[in-house]
Amino acid sequence: VIDPKGENARIAGEARRRIGTTHVLDPFEVSGHPSACYNPLDRLTPDSLDLGEDAASLTEALVMDPPGQVTEAHWNEEAKAILGGLIMFCVCHEERERRSLATVREYLTLPPDRLKALLELMQDSIEAGGLIARAANRFLGKADREAASVLSNAQRHTHFLDSPRIAKCLSRSDFAFSDLRRRITSVFLVLPPNRMDAYSRWLRLLVSQALQDIARDAEVATGLQSPSERLSSPTLFLLDEFAALGRLEAVERAMGLMAGYGLQLWPILQDMSQLRDLYGDRANTFIANAGVQQVFGVNDFETAKWLSQMIGQETSRFQTDSFKPGDGPSFSNHLTGRDLLTPDEIMQMPPNVQLLRVQGQATALAQKLRYYADPEFRGLFVPQDAA
């Protein structure tokens, strides 16, 4: 659960603890719960054949490609390359207690002479199938100005790691995301809205790692389990403030391909423009693969217009009368199409109503569930005024 204000952890955390394990990752201590930690480098091992792929998935989460800014593509790709090399070097050559992204950030901010010495050590490394040496060779082969720009870009994308709170939260692992497949487990990622711009990469990092860990665990389990032992329920990703994650390839893949791994995504957006800004034409992938679309509180006309067209039309019959002096009245019947809901009607829906579209069925007007008022939720939450 991406839980910006820590409200979900406060309100539902106790009920979740009664049925399973709960971890609240809250580096800025706004939820009232002690923060758990997760270190993405803990699951990387020097002898793994997937070390290069694992390091690349981390760099994809760390380096945010701004939508539509093609000029940044080269610098971001080169930043990913040197970051991947430094991550692999850290995993293969550091003591276990220093294997963290804070150490990788330390590498990137070394004085020029010490950084050059580090890169020369990387060139001599035979670990990771030679990928560490290749990353160093690729960087050292650049002209000074280009190398300086690549380094500056890598530093920019990892600046959030200078926060002692974020570094502490990434220093060790109190759990594994694969636990979400094996037993009832809840993970709350708490990041206050006023810190979202500065530290959204932390959310990207953890969501990306969770998707990868669960998918990899599922791949291993598929070969070991009989069909009767397969999971009876999926792992749900409740992604509030979805736009803050930026474009994330792991999420896009999960929407289209990972239902078979027992993954279910519930992204929450303010309007359709957020999705199109991030994913462009591929935004339709999210719509096409959504089993359920839930809409309420629409204030954007373009989103309301899109919804109106998606819901469709009904056939409306009307009659016209005409009368001429000296003649009797004449009547004509006509058929025409009318939007089931016009954009302005969608924008005027009362706050207790939602549009609900289940794949293969007609869109329905439904009551919104209210955990604080509906009797079936009684005793399953801590009231906000008491939280």
Question: Can you give me a brief rundown of this structure?
Answer:
The protein has 387 residues and is α/β, with parallel strands linked by helices. 43% of the residues lie in helices and 14% in strands.
Can you give a write-up of this model?
It is a single chain. The protein is an alpha/beta fold and 387 residues long. Helices cover 43% and strands 14% of the residues. The protein has helices at residues 7-19, 51-62, 73-93, 101-108, 112-124, 131-140, 144-157, 164-169, 179-182, 196-222, 249-257, 272-279, 283-288, 301-311, 343-347, and strands at residues 21-25, 185-189, 235-239, 263-267, 292-295, 313-322, 330-339, 353-358, 364-367. It has a three-stranded antiparallel beta sheet with strand order 5-8-9, with no helix packed on it. Strands 1-2 form a two-stranded parallel ribbon. Strands 3-4 form a two-stranded parallel sheet. The mean pLDDT is 88.
